[in-house]
Structures are given as structure tokens and as C-alpha cells.
Amino acid sequence: QVAADWLGGQLSGIAGKGAREYLKGRGLTSATISRFRLGYAPDARDRMKQTLLARGLTEIQLLEAGLLIKPDGGGESYDRFRNRLIFPITDAKGRVVAFGGRALGDQRAKYLNSPESPIFHKGNLLYNLVNARQPARDRDRLVVVEGYMDVIAMDQTGLSFVVAPLGTALTEQQMIALWRLVPEPRLCFDGDAAGQRAALRAAERALSIVKPGYSLRFVILPDGEDPDSLIRTKGSEAFSELLNKAVPLSDLLWRARLLARNPDTPEKWAGLRKDIRDTVQLIGDRTVQA
């Protein structure tokens, strides 16, 4: 929390001018920036380290929290996040346990997350779950998108029931957390080849844990679009319309198997039937399988 407060102060200070201009260009308001507690990590090797040490934290604490990196070959530790827009990641109780950082320069990795730690297990948490929990229950609707900015853009337009995995494929633990809120969460990945692959992986991973009354639906975005770009160009109503047209898990799998086989011969139709039988066998719940 101490780090989150300091990073937030950096965003509003002189060092954060470039980051603020980036957020302005993305259309985020001051209220949204405050709601998501966004911050900025300065482009300096150890400014965060020196500041937090001066505030009473130890180097060991900062290393365990993933805020510092210790070189393998020895030498002084340094800040993990530098010249990055910072997204605080909270646990189910709203406590900051990690950070995500978007590069604002020419860093090799566009996005960088805190490493696993005693208090941060990325496969178990969802970004923005604390804010989205009650709206999801009230509206009986919960949407999963790929990235932090997608979540924030949708929230700003009034779609406050949105979460995201933390830079990884959606895990079984995260799906179970979604089902605690709504029976059919809607997954909305980017409208490119990578997004389609992510949707299919999530669908296949869900098969072992689906149960009566609980499944997934999938929002199909136009080619090349992501939730943030779609909302900025066509508005939240256009996105809500796509949410209402979300396809069931079974439909997504059928389309994927059909596309993969392109059954224009008896042999390919036989192969498709085998694919479907094999897919059904992956379903863990026998009543759903039947």
C-alpha cells in the first residue's frame, strides 16, 4: 500500500506528465484514474527503492514484494518498474498485493506484472474483482476481457461488471471465482487470431469443471477490435449489443472443430465426429456430458 500511494503521487507530479498525457489520449477522466488508483513508476534505476527505504521498509521486504530485482551476478538491487504506467492489483478484500505496469518507452516487454509472492498468486486473482463484484450480482452479468485498459475503459462508460486475468490464460480457479458471482460469465477476448486462440483455450479448459447450470458464453468481436477500441469508436451501446449476442460454450467449440476440419468429404466428416466425441469425453460432469 505504501508503494501504491507513492506511485500514485508520481503520476500526479512532475515526473508523471508523460503518463498523464498518455491517459488523456486514451480518454480516461481524473475520476477514473482515481477510482483505479493508477500510478507511474519513474524512469530511474532506484528512485522507488530509495524512497521506500527512507520510509522504513527494508530491502528484503521490497524484494519479497517483487518491487526490486536483484541481479543474478551480484550488484545492487534496482526497481522492477521503470517508466511504466502502474495498475495496482488487489486481492478479494481490496488490499494491494501486486502491480501491473505498461511500458511508456521502448522497453522490450509492453506489459510487466509483479512476480509470484507469498501474497500474490496471479492464477487465483482477477483484476478489478472488488469493484465488479456487486454490479455483477446486481445485473447478473460479468464480463472477462484481456487487459487492464479494457476493464478501465468499459468501467468508465458504465459497464462496471468487468474483470481481467493477470497476463495469463484464464485458469480453472478464476473460472470458479467467476461462477460464485454469475452462472454464465461472458468472455470477451480481442478480435484477432491470438484472441480467438485464447477463447478456445478457455473453452477447452472449462470442460473439466462445467456443471449443471454453470457454463461460459463468448463475445465475438469484429476482426482487429478489442473492447477498448470498440467502445471508443462505436460506443458502449454497440458493445452491449455484442454482449447480448454472446454464444454458448458448446457453440464456440462446435465452430472451432468445424473450421479445423472443413468437412467436405465423408472422411473429414468422420474425423469431425471423432473430434466431437473426444471433446465430449473431456467434460468432467457426467450429467452435462450426457
From TrEMBL:
| Identification of the protein by name | Toprim domain-containing protein
GO cellular component assignments: cytoplasm
Q: Which Pfam families match?
A: DNAG_N, Toprim_4
Extract one GO BP annotation from the record: DNA replication, synthesis of primer
- Write down the SMART domains for this protein, in alphabetical order: TOPRIM (SM00493)
Q: Tell me which stretches of the chain form a coiled coil.
A: none
User: What positions does the domain Toprim occupy?
Assistant: 140-222
